[in-house]
Amino acid sequence: MGCEAPLDADEEHICKYCLDHLPTTKHWEQTNNPIEQIFWGKLQVVSAASYLYFSKGGIVQEMLHNLKYNHQLGVGRLLGKRFGAELAKTPFSDIDLIVPVPLHKDKLRKRGYNQCDPIVEGLSEAIGKEYCLPALKRTASNESQTRKGRYERWLNVKSLFKAVEVERIAGKHVLLVDDVVTTGATLEACASALLEVPDVRLSIASIACPALV
Ligand SMILES: [Zn+2]
Predict the structure, then answer these.
(1) Ligand 1 center–CA 16 separation, angstroms
(2) How far is the CA of 83 from the centre of ligand 1 (A)?
(3) Cα separations (Å) of 128 from 134, 178, 185?
């Protein structure tokens, strides 16, 4: 992926050059970064960050596409590990438990895996904290909402997720993980479900975000 150069024996999925030149956001070095700002006034978030910027046709989009649709789970693990190595040096290392945004069960059946799971595994390995999958489940499909009013839609999204591993989550500082963050609506709905569990503190991490959030 990336420059399409043949890989050396010690390289996986992507060459060292491309890996060293990924478009990182450096959000984790920035308080009040653009990802944290998405959730201002909506959620109590300890820290939030995205690892990379994606652009149409760029290398990040290619990697995430292969992770999501071509069973390249190793790409997710690799990105999770790289991101985790950065986060381990920051206040993010204070987290206790890492959980993915769940995939709707119809999609899960069709695809066979949640693309966030390998990202979570990579993060867990690099930060040295445990993970829990799945920790949330989708209570309903969020399709066919177009005929509903704004408030009804909001209510519907709010109650889309439910924490299923309440005992493991209670009292923890949870890192919620998604592959891409755009509007933050899905992350917000998951986060609300996690924050209903007693004494949870919440941080958010995604692999990629658009260049201008
Ligand atoms: Zn390359």
Answers:
(1) 7
(2) 18
(3) 19, 19, 28
